[in-house]
Amino acid sequence: MTQTNNAIPTNKGVLSKRMLMGAGIGLLLICLFLSSAGHPNPFWPKLWFLRPLIIVPFAGAMGGLCNYYLVYFHNLMGVNKTVAMILSAVIFLIGLWLGLILGLDGTYWN
Q1: Would you tell me which of 21, 22, 88, 89 could form a disulfide with 60, CB atoms 3.0–4.6 Å apart?
Q2: Per-residue pLDDT tens for 9-37?
Q3: What is the Cα gyration radius of the chain?
């Protein structure tokens, strides 16, 4: 029996760079929001701010992952590169928005 490797090669340097950029955008966005939001409710838990500081950058990193796969493999999917870039930007923004909602649920958006 012969074993075949059908895995798609990935450029790990570019992938990690895009994921870090997405996480950085998410972290910057949530830090700006939390710093300008005012005083928290005293009934919230003591470390309530850790949840959004973890979830939003994670959502940004997943948006960067989606961007990498859509733009890097647009030929395999049969999509024009411009369409792939626009689609990945829309998916990134929707994912970041959902990350903001999930991160702030129970505190600012309750």
Answers
A1: 22
A2: 778 888 999 999 999 999 999 999 988 87
A3: 18
